[in-house]
Amino acid sequence: MSRLIKYAIIFFMSMVPLIELRGAIPVAYGFKAADPGINLLLSYIIIAIGNMIPVPIIYFFARKVLEWGKDKPVIGGFFTFCLEKGEKGGKKLQEKAGKGLFVALMLFVGIPIPGTGAWTGTLAASILDMDFKSTVLAVVAGIAMAGCIIGLLCALGLGAYLGIAA
Questions:
Q1: CB–CB of 128/29 below 8 Å?
Q2: 24 against 158, higher pLDDT
Q3: Of 95, 110, 123, 125, which residue is 20 to 30 A from 160 by alpha carbon distance?
Q4: Is the torsion defined by CA of 23, 144, 62, 116 positive or negative?
Q5: Residue 27: other Cβ atoms inside 10 A
Q6: Complete DSSP assignment for 24-72
Q7: Domain range summary for the chain, segments of one domain joined by +
Q8: Using CA atoms, how far apart are residues 50 and 44, in angstroms rounded to an integer?
Q9: How far apart are CA 146 and CA 59, in angstroms?
Q10: How far is CA 164 from the centre of its chain?
């Protein structure tokens, strides 16, 4: 598989909800282990850009689409679930954060645990009517933070594996 294809794979993986950056970085490390020519800094940049591409779309359209579809026969239950989860998460985030909503959103996106990330954070910010500029800046900072955490965990894991395999 060519390097260009490997970079394309991690780019598109980083756009997928639930996988996002948290799944693409370990794949990049796997590609690096198999092909020393893979540049991890370039991989991080590609992954961060891929993870950010859906943010404006989610911010401006996700809430509208979910509200439109919540009363539709086949998709209504799922759309209602997504709206309720987003509203619940957003209100919980706002209660805990108070005036520190920017920092709370950054930490929400940046601490890599299941159910957090750019997709969920952006949806919560749009439901909370947080302004677009603050949302994007908080999500970018959160993505950088999550990238550092996941990258460190991958580097430690790869180092441990190589130490054991040697």
A1: no
A2: 24
A3: 110
A4: positive
A5: 18
A6: HHHHHHHHHHH-TT--HHHHHHHHHHHHHTHHHHIIIIIHHHHHHHTTS
A7: 3-165
A8: 10
A9: 20
A10: 31
What is the rounded average pLDDT of the residues 132-137? 95
pLDDT at 158 over 70: no
Q: What is the dihedral of CA 47, 52, 54, 59, to 10 degrees?
A: 160
Residues 6+ apart with CB under 8 A from 28: 10, 38, 40, 43, 44, 47
Tokens describing residue 41? 């800094």
- Of 154 and 91, the structure prediction assigns the larger pLDDT to 154
Residue identified by tokens 């911010």 is 59
Whole-angstrom Cα distance, residue 78 to residue 59? 19
- What single-letter amino acid sits at 43? S
